[in-house]
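[agent] plan:
  1. take the single chain provided in the ticket
  2. run structure prediction with default settings
  3. attach structure tokens to the ticket
  4. add a short note for the reviewer (M.T.)
[agent] executing step 1
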Amino acid sequence: MNSTQEIKEFGIKRENEERRDGGCAIIFNPETQKYAVYDNLKTGILGLYGGGFDENEDEETGVLREVVEESGLYDFLHFEKIEKVAVHYYNSNKNVNRVAFATCFFAILKSADLKPTKLEEHEKFELVWKNPTEILSNWNSRNKNKDFDHWVYFMGIATNRIKELGYAN
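[agent] step 2 finished; step 3 output follows
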């Protein structure tokens, strides 16, 4: 993304939006041809691993930290920035309206080995493996408020890039 490129905006503006920039990752296992997402045990919503950046933390470091803490996945063959967008959404894990610059990366796993997770109190979810059709169906069925538009957009870019790199069957 160059500095003159307009940043795409997703979601619906809401009252009392809390600003919290962060990022997420689309994680692909070439062995199984599935994607790592979390299943929110309270809502059944599938989600991309990620979160807010710590002070003075760059985007890549922040997303990698969040992915390892939340999923336990750590053994990556490839890690690449997809895009940065502006997004308005309802954060169901923290029960707040958010506005943020969200930066998405995609990761190709070298192995699906896991480290112990470090979930926060509000993070009631577990790692599951799904194909893009299952993930998109989950998001689209819950997307009347446009909370998942940016994830749908990121998934499209990532699946195309994974094909370009020769990892998809």
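[agent] step 4 note for reviewer: The longest strand covers residues 76-91.
[agent] ticket updated
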